[in-house]
Amino acid sequence: MAQSVKLGLLGNGISRSRAKNLHELLGTLYGLGISYQPMDMAGRTRPVVIAEELQRCREEGFRGVNVTHPYKREAFRCITPLPGFPDGLTSANTVLFDDGIMQGGNTDFSGFCRGYRSQFGADAAAGRVLMLGTGGVGLAIAYGLTRLGATELVLYDKNPETAQTLLEQLQKTGLKVRLAWSDLITEMQEADGLINATPVGMFQYPGSPFPPEGFASQRWAFDAVYTPENTEFLQACRARGIATLSGFKLFLYQGLDAFEHFTGIAPDDRQVEAEFLHRYPLE
User: Fold this and answer.
1) How confident is the model at residue 2 (pLDDT cuts 50, 70, 90)?
2) Contact yes or no for 194/141 (Cβ under 8 A)
3) Domain 3-105+249-279 adopts which CATH fold?
4) 109-245: CATH, from 1.50.10.10, 3.40.50.720, 3.50.30.50, 3.30.70.2740
5) Which of 61, 74, 118, 126 could be disulfide-bonded to 150 (CB atoms 3.0-4.6 Å)?
6) Is 71 a residue of the active site?
7) Marked catalytic residue, from 36, 71, 116, 253
8) Percent of the chain at pLDDT exceeding 90
9) Residue 1: exposed, middle, or buried by beta-carbon count in 10 A (0-12, 13-18, 19+)?
């Protein structure tokens, strides 16, 4: 009889998440009885307190949960970091209930690093990077860039306070980082890599956050959006010969890393990707 493992997802507005599909597929492939419960906080009539939700999950026998927008920073305050958690990173998207201890990791961070290396090569340096969006996923990606040969990170966000907070965090890592001080087109033209860490491009927020006039000789681009996978931003990049990394790769690798935390099993990424896309074609 397959070992039963109870997992879940905490977030707001998660009806289109594919996390349940991925983790239950992983259970099938590796002989585990995975029960994965999405817990959408949208529409709650009282304020959501993630510490209380995590405690409830622990009491109800969950092995662990994934945490997504907008609760990653709050989740971090509830956990003991797992080994390898980057110093200074203050968001957690994976929580493991183990012997009464609530441990946490950030597989957005590790998943971005794995996706980048798998797509562009293990030795491909990120160079000068312009990133739009400095929220939860942007925070993890920025820390990933410290491991990927970024020479400078330029931050742009419609909320200057959020951008300033991330700037101050990253300055402690030794990464050269600044806020965008020129117009967006100029900043784009001077970048080696472009990152969209905003919701723009999702089904409910169509479009591209990057003006077409800014495309020049960039080498690579990443879009954290994966519903749809083929965003307007990535289409524009591919049309200009820019190498791209889709948000699906981040989704895949962060999920594989989370599954390993939950079960101790390191999945075969190529096998899982092929089987997932066969069963659940991307939109």
Assistant:
1) low
2) no
3) Rossmann fold (3.40.50)
4) 3.40.50.720
5) 126
6) yes
7) 71
8) 86
9) exposed
